[in-house]
Amino acid sequence: MRILIFTILFTFHFINCGTYLLLTNQEQKDKQSFLNFVQLTLLDSSIGLVHYWPLDGDTKDIVGGLDLTAASGTPALTADRFGFPGKAYYYDGGGGYHQSSAQGPLFFDGTVSSFTVSAWVKGKYPPGNNGNEFMFLSQGSGLGLQLYALTAGSCSGRLRAFTNNGGSGDVDVGTDCGEYPEDVWYHMVFTWDIQRLTASLYVNNVLVSSGTFGVNRPWATNNFFQLGLSNISSQLFEGSIDDVRIYNRAVFPVSSL
């Protein structure tokens, strides 16, 4: 009987030991898998990155050197999407906006290259009949990202991205009206895939609009890059902007941004 009990305990001891070793090994594998995922995500978010304005207390382009300067007033530092003070910029809609210190290169030349525009934004939907003219991000009169409101009483609560290629038509992707309330942080990503002639808009990592546009390709011009204003109109954006990135490729998945 004593031998039987010893045999059972001895076997149980080694089973437990084996289980412990197995669990420890699995933990190490999970940890390595997580580290690999983080490294791949960081790598993917840097490939093709040509301009990056973190807006963490200043308006420097830490990748492409296309720094922004204040014009017609000074946008104020504000809390970012995480609530950290001084890590984003607020535009009051009354005068101040940011503009690149030099004309930007053809990084939006959709006739020869794919591209991606990524930005975090929180703002007001503009009232009145000219709400479709308010842009929070633009370059010249060719590209705009906006919180869209056509009239005070009809379409509002819409997020939109578009390009104007100078006469042959627009690339235009946007959400339905009334889907997105104002004064909420949204991550907007606009991609142009030249191989598929497809433009896509993502909001908070979800594809909300996509289309194939054929000859209506994104415009090609070099002009000043602006936050809070567009050359399309004199309308000024009211809201906050953070973490703006430009890629010379169609980033996918956008969750890596």
Automatic annotation (TrEMBL):
Keywords: Disulfide bond, Signal. Transmembrane segments: none annotated. Residues 113-254 form the LamG-like jellyroll fold domain. SMART domains: LamGL (SM00560). The keyword Signal applies. This is LamG domain-containing protein. The lineage of its organism: Bacteria, Pseudomonadati, Spirochaetota, Spirochaetia, Leptospirales.
